[in-house]
Amino acid sequence: MQNKEIKYSTTIGLLTALVLVFFNRSWALGVLLGCLCYALYFFLLSYSINDLTSARPTGGLLVSLGPVLRLFVLAIPLLVSFLVPEMINTFGVMIGLLLFKITAIIMSLIEK
Predict the structure, then answer these.
(1) What's the structural domain count of the chain?
(2) Distance between CA atoms of 39 and 62, rounded to whole angstroms?
(3) Model-level pTM?
(4) pLDDT single digits (tens) 17-63
(5) For residue 105, what are the domain limits?
(6) 3-state secondary structure at position 87
(7) Angle at Cα 66 formed by Cα 72 and Cα 5, nearest 5°?
């Protein structure tokens, strides 16, 4: 993803959460938590890719445990929403996690 797609995704996620605050706070918290965790996931993914493709890869612990750590980052908001459904909606979390991918697809369709 490019920089502008990340900006659009976070802006859309924050606006969606802001609108949902007035209707249902658990949905808003779910979207916000999902959006933030996917942003962290994308940061970890880009760090791993940059380290693996660099001239002198460090091969550190973060790179070697990258797939497991990224999966854990995606699982945390879903587990929290399952444990505390009255505060964080599971469908809101899924929308927040998918928001980055939906934005990437829309941006690629617009650019064609």
Answers:
(1) 1
(2) 17
(3) 0.80
(4) 888 888 888 888 888 898 888 888 888 888 777 777 776 666 666 66
(5) 3-111
(6) coil
(7) 85
